[in-house]
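Example with several molecule types.
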Amino acid sequence: MNEPARLFISEIFSAIQGEGRYVGSRQIFLRLSGCDLRCSYCDEPDSLEKKPGHARIETRPGSREFDEMESPLPVTVVASRIVEFESQLAHRFLSVTGGEPLIQPAGLSELLPVCRASGMKIALETSGTRPDALRLVAEAGDIISMDIKLDSVDSAGVDPVSQCEFLSAAIEIGAEVYCKAVISASLDADELREAAKWIADLDPSLTLYLQPVSEAGGEVPPSAGALLGLQAQVMEILSDTRVLPQVHKLMGQK
Ligand code: SF4
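Resulting structure tokens for the full complex:
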């Protein structure tokens, strides 16, 4: 008999979404461990390595009391904890985040159908570089929050071609997709405009969120005046370009 798939997990908890289109809504966060990038502004340094360790599982939604379990966890265990959590409070979405969730497509392709079957809606937060993994995991109607990586901001060296392929795959699947670019004072505006152009070539009606980098860790966000100018430039390419800081940090929520 095959072993059940396992997932490397950092934490499961209930919280207010602080970024993107569904900011303010209550979501279950499934934070997976491991990421293949190293963005300079990363605010999840403890979730970057995909390796055995402790996973923190909140005992009740919002209690901020946690059980510790040994990760990787069998998908069946993860599913039952999430479904039980949802039975205690109906959340808007299961937000699958990381790290980079799409480095564990096998486990997710077993977990997410169970969650959908129990009535949950799936929101995937991804760096947007793995179209093949996305096709294994996502379905029409899922929500995909796709990062647009800008080398002048993150120094992560992401190839825009892989991002373009990813966005194309997300649209083909029939997911509800929006894009999010972290920007800082080091941003090269030409790089941002180029990204807006390839997004608009795929779908000019897509929303792009410009997310000023958080000041923690020595990162410097653009000034308010610079943001106005950047937004105006990008709106000429993508009309629905919005500026949205990380609301959960403003309210002191992790
Ligand atoms: S993709 Fe996300 S998790 Fe990975 S290094 Fe960048 S910010 Fe951190």
